[in-house]
Design brief:
By secondary structure, the protein is an alpha+beta fold. It has 10 helices and 5 strands. It has a 5-stranded mixed β-sheet, sandwiched between helices. The longest helix is centred in the last third of the chain and has 22 residues, at 153-174. The termini are far apart.
């Protein structure tokens, strides 16, 4: 029988050690989904008593890094709303999909239902100005990528990264989905649009492995086709001066 400590046990021991007054604990991220590696950090939401200051902290406990999302019950709606406006839903997903580790006062079910309802409604849609800017920026990245010589690998790889990210965010938004950053971007992308999302990721891989932007440019063209096509001349961005 294995004596290896589970991520859930590690997270609970961390909170009991540092926040014995916690009113609730939820383990989220890859650890809650069973995708954690031995070196993965832990994403842990901790409910603190009223009067405490909400914050994010990164700590190390027992050799494992953990990112802590600390807030009071009264502050949770504000954190949920900020998460919704960012369109990534980091804390929302922790509460919805996470693993409850402690709930001595029975406050977690209500908060999890709130998070679930917000996630089901989806993030706010992009404004017309945001759509136009997204199309313009993605078109610029795609043009620069296809114009870059294959031996300019630093530039080519940087452009491929920016192209993928912009295309992914726009494609996810087109489907009304929640976006992500880091490893969560490809996960959210494939959830939102498995076919076009995979085409973008395979195109990015072709640039990385073969210095060939053709597949990525083709995949980006499909995304732009959904949004009204490439946008170059005629684009205008109104800028209000600071007063």
């Amino acid at each position: 029988m294995s004596d290896q400590v589970t991520p859930a046990a590690e997270a609970l021991a961390l909170v009991e050690d540092r926040f014995p007054q916690a009113l609730g604990v939820v383990l989220g991220g890859s650890a809650a989904l069973g995708r954690a590696t031995p070196t993965s950090d832990l994403d842990v939401a901790v409910l603190l008593p009223e009067g405490e200051t909400g914050r994010r902290e990164v700590v190390r406990h027992g050799g494992r890094l953990a990112e802590l999302f600390l807030h009071t019950v009264a502050d949770v709606p504000e954190h949920f709303e900020r998460d919704r406006l960012l369109r990534r839903g980091t804390i929302l997903f922790i509460y919805d999909q996470g693993l409850p580790l402690a709930d001595p006062h029975g406050v977690l079910p209500s908060l999890r239902e709130q998070a679930r309802a917000i996630l089901a409604e989806g993030p706010p849609p992009l404004t017309e100005a945001e759509w136009e800017r997204g199309r313009y920026v993605l078109t610029c990245f795609m043009d620069d990528l296809t114009d870059t010589a294959p031996d300019e690998r630093y530039e080519q790889l940087a452009l491929a990264d920016f192209t993928l990210r912009e295309a992914a965010h726009l494609l996810i938004a087109h489907h009304g989905g929640w976006t992500g950053i880091g490893k969560w971007l490809p996960r959210r992308l494939l959830e939102a649009d498995p076919r076009r999302g995979k085409a973008l990721l395979e195109g990015h891989r072709a640039v990385a492995e073969h210095a060939d932007p053709a597949l990525l440019a083709e995949a980006v063209g499909q995304v732009l086709g959904l949004l009204g096509g490439p946008l170059r001349e005629g684009y205008t961005q109104n800028i209000r001066p600071h007063r």
